[in-house]
Amino acid sequence: MPLFEYKCRECGKPFDELVNHADDPVSCPFCKSTNAEKQLSVFAASVGGSSSASATPCGQPSCGSGFA
């Protein structure tokens, strides 16, 4: 089951939820409202990221790849 990030539109608190299908209804664990908005997770936002040297932690194109 995939893990999705949500933000409750009633109380404003963020939460994570394991769901079978992306469009399954979820309830806020804090206020029990079913009025939640799916959030774009940091992981999903960075999957198609840049391959430039500045995107690596050490500033080198081969940083951490095992190749010199």
Automatic annotation (TrEMBL):
Compositionally biased region (Polar residues): 57-68
SMART domains in the record: CxxC_CXXC_SSSS (SM00834)
InterPro entries: Regulatory_FmdB_Zinc_ribbon
UniProt signal peptide: none
Domain of life of the source: Bacteria
Span list, region Disordered: 48-68
Protein name in UniProt: Zinc ribbon domain-containing protein
